[in-house]
UniProtKB/TrEMBL annotation:
Lineage: Bacteria, Bacillati, Actinomycetota, Coriobacteriia, Eggerthellales
Keyword Transmembrane helix annotated: yes
Name recorded for this polypeptide: Uncharacterized protein
Membrane-spanning parts: 12-35, 47-64, 73-91, 97-115, 155-181, 196-217, 229-255, 275-301, 313-334
Source organism of this protein record: Gordonibacter urolithinfaciens
Keywords for this protein: Membrane, Transmembrane, Transmembrane helix
Matching Pfam families: ABC_trans_CmpB
């Protein structure tokens, strides 16, 4: 009996690759936390590994979306790794055919698999076309329904979840500074390095703002501009400006100079292209990237996933998420001292 390779739910070896890519990305990022700025040197192999991490993330996404471009990207980057690795070893005078073959084996397997696999050709078929774009846009516009309970239910869950996830994202950002990959300073004694479930509601508010304000802007741009790239670029600029203005407003309200002239919460006066030490170009770009990912990728993906679940399941999850978030709020924020009363866990 002939095997059917056309079922898009059966990815075969590609599913293994997705799991391997995701595991490697998470493991590498987790281990990077233990690198201390000034105590390590990034060699050629390290830089190539980080490039491959980006490639793996892109490949994971394209396979998930069943895009035909995944095949070309993976084949091209596999060849890139083989050629660059071989060229580097030749240039360094350390080329050994057997060692080079072994070190390039995974890339060779990837290249040959995506070159010859019938499953790849049958499953990865989605093009980047205007028709597909219109269908995707219509589906994404349908997610924005503020007159429905489901919309606000999901929004409340996103606020709760991203209040905690935002904490982790800030830790990751400070880790890049810690590595020396990004300029800036970080506080090694900051709250972000401990109590990993400590909620930072400002990031929950940011997620809500992305959905309520920036997501409609993204949809508007896509509706009125035929290109795919131009709306993305304009959306990025708008997102960066809005987020920076929010940070500036918060800074002017909450981050006023102390008597000694220092700023208590954050101080960007030593950063390039800063304004009053409250905002700077580097953070504006970072905000733009995160907000653009949220509006273009994360929010549509979350809405798509939740819509596939029964309403009762999502409502039950909503109750659990809200109560879990309230537990964190009461543990970390609400501390009422009553004389003579001692509560122990």
């Amino acid at each position: 009996m002939a095997r059917d390779f056309s079922n898009p739910k059966k990815l075969g070896f590609m599913r293994f690759l997705q799991v391997a890519f995701a595991f490697n990305i998470l493991l590498t990022l987790a281990l990077s936390v233990f690198l201390i700025k000034g105590q390590y040197t990034l060699g050629f192999g390290d830089v190539l590994d980080y490039l491959n991490l980006i490639f793996e993330a892109m490949s994971f996404w394209l396979i998930w979306q069943r895009k035909a471009a995944a095949r070309s990207l993976i084949m091209a980057f596999s060849l890139f790794n083989i050629v660059i690795g071989t060229g580097y070893n030749l240039g360094q005078g350390g080329f050994d055919p057997l060692n080079q073959l072994l070190s390039s084996l995974f890339d060779i397997v990837l290249f040959l698999y995506f070159l010859t696999s019938r499953r790849v050709k049958a499953v990865l078929t989605e093009p980047f076309t205007a028709e597909v774009k219109r269908e995707e846009l219509a589906r994404e516009i349908s997610y924005y329904q503020p007159r429905t309970w489901a919309f606000w239910r999901n929004l409340i869950m996103y606020f709760c979840v991203f209040s905690v996830v935002g904490h982790w994202m800030e830790a990751a950002y400070c880790t890049l500074i810690r590595f020396g990959i990004l300029p800036g300073i970080y506080d090694p004694n900051s709250q972000i390095w401990s109590d990993w479930l400590y909620p930072f509601p400002v990031y929950g508010v940011g997620a809500v703002a992305c959905v309520l304000l920036l997501y409609p802007v993204k949809n508007f741009l896509e509706q009125h501009i035929g290109s795919r790239v131009v709306p993305l670029l304009i959306s990025f600029v708008v997102n960066a400006l809005v987020c920076t203005l929010i940070e500036l407003a918060m800074g002017l309200m909450l981050n006023q100079p102390l008597p000694d002239g220092s700023l208590p919460l954050w101080d960007y006066r030593d950063m390039f292209c800063n304004f009053m030490g409250q905002v700077c170009l580097q953070n504006a770009i970072a905000f733009g990237i995160v907000a653009t990912l949220m509006t273009w990728v994360v929010y549509p993906a979350m809405e798509s996933g939740l819509r596939k679940l029964p309403s009762d399941v999502v409502n039950t999850a909503f109750v659990g998420v809200v109560v879990g978030f309230l537990i964190l709020v009461f543990l970390y924020y609400v501390n009422v001292v009553v004389s003579g009363l001692v509560v122990t866990s």
